[in-house]
Specification:
Order of helices and strands: HHHHEHEHEHEEHEHEHEHEEHEE
Shape: elongated
Strand content: 15-25%
Distance between the termini: 85 Å
Structural class: alpha/beta
Number of helices: 12
Radius of gyration: 25 Å
Length: 338
């Protein structure tokens, strides 16, 4: 049997082909009673839209994509969930692409998404400058773009980030208020905005309290657990180790905690610590970890809202939105030993 056509749906519903087309394409300019008749007729005839034909005709789809550096990272899992909730509510589906922070892999994915005529892309760039050039080319083809968590420098796109500077400044100030003066920082790579801003927040908190920044207490990592473990061991096997640590991400926290365990150091008896990000297991750790909480699902949802606004023709100037963070005090911080 041949599949039913739009014309047959229109005849079944007693409406015009144009009305059926508007209903099936999600238009809100159709009376509720007519909409119900069209949907009932489509269901009775088991009509399914020819997506391929529609894509060729409109040069776009009802699909958006998110390009992330690490699909296993709980941060990006939660962000993607927030984006998907917004997209699905508005009739869009979401593709997820994992780059492993490889610029070449990112470039391939972006080209594939352009070829597949996705309506828009949320991207956490592998290289804030290098990625911008390809983003500009994609935008010239009419594809909406939004930057997530990292900036797209020199590209006129909306961006969504957490308040990395303010959240870190508040957390480190709390450590200082508890009496700590030697505070270690396990930082991320400075080529990424979150790492730069968290280091700036750390340094500003020290300066706010008249404490000189000691480069020996700062270890730069790749935001991965194994490298964070090595950095932590270096801090605590050198002379005059810190009494507290600020860990700049969840992956960093996993590596650092493993290193502290191997060294026989107890939290918070031997070292206090705060983690940037409220990991799912943070309050189940013994002791429960003090964290800087960022609303990752809201980040994804806001990125989705901004992307859909651009897809629908929004022409307002690009904006960078910073979502507030919250210091959640638990049991991993205490006053240093005398």
């Amino acid at each position: 049997m041949k599949p039913p056509t739009v014309k047959e749906v229109a005849q079944q519903a007693g409406v015009s082909v144009a009305t059926v087309s508007r209903v099936l394409n999600g238009s809100t300019a159709v009376d509720g009673e007519l909409r119900q008749r069209v949907m009932a007729a489509a269901e009775q005839l088991r009509y399914r839209p020819n997506r391929l034909a529609r894509n060729l005709r409109t040069k776009s789809t009802k699909t958006i994509a998110i390009v992330v550096p690490d699909i296993e990272n709980p941060f990006f899992v939660s962000v993607t969930r927030g984006l998907e909730e917004v997209a699905f509510r508005e009739g869009y589906t979401v593709l997820v692409c994992n780059t492993d922070d490889d610029p070449q892999r990112e470039s391939v994915y972006l080209q594939v998404l352009l070829d597949e005529a996705v309506a828009g892309i949320v991207v956490c760039a592998t290289d804030e400058r290098r990625s911008s050039a390809q983003v500009l080319k994609i935008m010239e083809q009419g594809v909406a773009m939004v930057g997530l968590d990292r900036r797209l420098e020199n590209a006129p796109v909306d961006g969504v980030l957490s308040d990395n500077f303010g959240g870190t400044r508040t957390a480190v100030a709390y450590l200082i208020e508890q009496g700590h003066r030697r505070i270690g920082l396990i930082a991320g790579p400075p080529k990424y905005a979150p790492a730069r801003e968290r280091r700036m927040g750390y340094e500003q908190a020290l300066l706010d309290h008249g404490i000189a920044v000691d480069p020996a207490l700062i270890k730069v990592t790749n935001f991965k657990g194994p490298e964070a473990a090595v950095a932590t061991e270096e801090l605590f096997t050198a002379g005059d180790p810190p009494t507290a640590l600020f860990l700049s991400s969840g992956n960093v926290a996993i590596g650092s905690l493993r290193a502290l365990h191997r060294l026989g150091l107890q939290v918070p008896a031997d070292v206090s610590l705060i983690v940037f990000d409220d990991l799912e297991w943070a309050d189940a750790y013994n002791p429960p970890l003090t964290v800087v909480s960022q609303n990752t699902r809201q980040l994804g949802g806001l990125a989705g809202d901004l992307l859909l606004r651009r897809i629908r023709g929004g022409t307002e100037p690009p904006q960078e939105r910073h979502l507030a963070t919250q210091l959640i005090v638990r049991g991993s911080v205490t006053r240093p030993r005398a």
